[in-house]
């Protein structure tokens, strides 16, 4: 007898006919760094794989490919003219979309294409599936609205049967995405990427496809594994009860079968159960059918993994994470799910699989998917390859009632969407206090919704400034205590019934030349040279092992690969270079857990060059002095000279580079200019001074002035006030600083004010601060302004000066009532003799003060009423 291939194997070879014809006009837009899969993407080959591996039917049509697109104002009607072609399903902002434009909050994105009514649609329903659209989508067929959806991460399905006619039909999709300006959960997407926040992804970013189904069809399934029993619920699209039949296969042979009613829980004992684990990711195949009056009407293929996850005590009484009744340390990484070419969307399915394979090959057994959901195929690859997944919810946008409602709605949809994947062993609710609220209630809701998984109610709770003081209150109802520690490692506190985990740690930056998104802005929590990283990482893992022995059950390293300017990865952003040789990092991880599988023979990644790139400096300097003036060469030479503190040659190379570039400058060029503005005589300084408005448009509000003031201070002020000089020549400094205009005057007055403040020269401080605040109050932070006012209160008895300082408090309060500023103003007025006015303001301050701050406010108010000094 011929051996049957498992359904999982067959699924990998699934393909669908696409109805989009390739157009030579499309091409990927330029990108700082590409991946090896970028050239493989084309209109004929845009993620052609079957998109939903746990509910597979044979009849489907992939709608990925070239669509028309247009961007209009948010409230504008559907456009008559479209602006070009976009490659679906790559986000609008991505290079692979062929567009690479930002969608602003007052914009609307439109997609259009024609679809043929499926040839097998007679007497059937036609379903239109979207893997995900960020954020709010409205869908039209032949001008008729057929449905809408809000939520950037969840799949949704529309029945478009009644809107179709024979032949060609027009499909139109409207998308509004406010990105980080709305109440929508959006993860780490922002309109202005910076630090740990990255480029936004708007519009369709997962596969779009058609499917024909009977009138009564399977619309949902629930798969719940227990120790030796598999529970399955089959739900049809309508309310009627049908007969459901489930057959379970192991390696192609049936091992269990059950019939029952749809919507009922069907329980099947699994003989000689083969548990799923990272070491042995065994999957059972499922055949699921429904019948109407004993006639089969619909069938799907699926799969299941038999596994349990729990918190139990080990032999020493430590609370630990147990997989299938066995202590399993969760050694993981923080996976952001971004790509340089596709942003939220992996360029190909093989690329999607590569990330999981890379993590497993390095010797990890866990991935924390960080405030993003992935396409169903990512979780399928986790199930198939064997990796434990901690799945974050996508952070609540803010603390408004609207944002909270949307957050909770999407949380429910997320769990429903991903509930059947055996690889997911933990749901993560809140991260580091970001828009955290009702933590206990939501943790308990999550546990009730899915009791089969661990619930991490708050990862990095120690980063939340509003956290309860009592540790017993911090992770209420959760299964884990979780702290973050950069670079770390560290350990969470021990609480009864909870395992201890380190939700984030690491963050070590290692720069890899020619594999950086933006070399000028690249950063990490700490930075080490390439040659030092392996030794540094090994030392950190040895430290982690000590914590594991003390009771730590899991740790999540930041991160598997660099992401945009965040260069904390074990691999580069383009997935080309690994920063510790693969066998070495596997060896290091064996201190914690054994590797869960061999490195596949087809897994390819290059080791990092650990030689110091600055060793080339002498040769580059020789070429420079010989007259070589290539633009990129000059830029690299200038940056290298700065690292080696050769400032004369740095300025020469920078000046030659700057002479070759023309305004308007890109962000990368402005970053270079800012970095090279090291003295008031530098060309870069002069460029910033002459183009402040243009610089601020790219770099941010007042960034030009801040940079100029830093340089003026270093050259003009600091040499004259440092050292042993007790009587600086302020007049001479003023004359020189004022030659740089208003910016020079501001840095002069600020420097003088702070100098007298720090040296406790109160007679000089009062007039200096008065002049500084009078001219530049709008540029001061409220806390700095309050600091000056408080200093006047304690150090001056002059009524006029006290009233002037109360005016500074009034400026603070114009930005909003805060008890701290009201307290300062009340004290100033009271000391100046305006008692009744002071008491009224202090009463208001007391009413606004947080409970923990009320006692000192009450004491001050009582002293005022008794005519006692408050100073």
Features:
Beta-mannosidase-like_N2, 22 helices, disordered N terminus, Ig-like_fold, 36 strands, Immunoglobulin-like, eight-stranded parallel sheet, alpha/beta, TIM Barrel, Jelly Rolls
Topology (SSEs and partners):
Blueprint (H helix, E strand, L loop, with lengths): L6 H6 L47 E3 L2 E9 L10 E5 L18 E10 L8 E6 L2 E2 L1 E6 L2 E7 L5 E4 L8 E9 L12 E2 L7 E2 L3 E2 L3 E6 L4 E8 L3 E8 L6 E8 L2 E9 L3 E5 L14 E9 L2 E10 L4 E5 L5 E5 L2 E2 L2 E6 L13 H13 L4 E4 L6 H10 L2 E5 L8 H18 L5 E8 L7 H11 L4 E6 L20 E6 L13 E8 L1 E2 L16 E2 L2 H21 L1 E7 L18 E2 L3 H8 L16 E2 L9 H9 L5 H13 L3 H12 L8 H10 L6 H8 L1 H8 L3 H19 L8 H9 L2 H18 L3 H15 L5 H14 L3 H15 L5 H13 L3 H14 L5 H12 L6
Parallel strand pairs: 11-12, 25-26, 25-34, 26-27, 27-28, 28-29, 30-31, 31-34, 32-33, 35-36
Antiparallel strand pairs: 1-14, 2-3, 2-4, 4-10, 5-9, 5-14, 6-13, 7-8, 7-10, 15-16, 16-19, 17-18, 17-20, 20-21, 22-23, 23-24
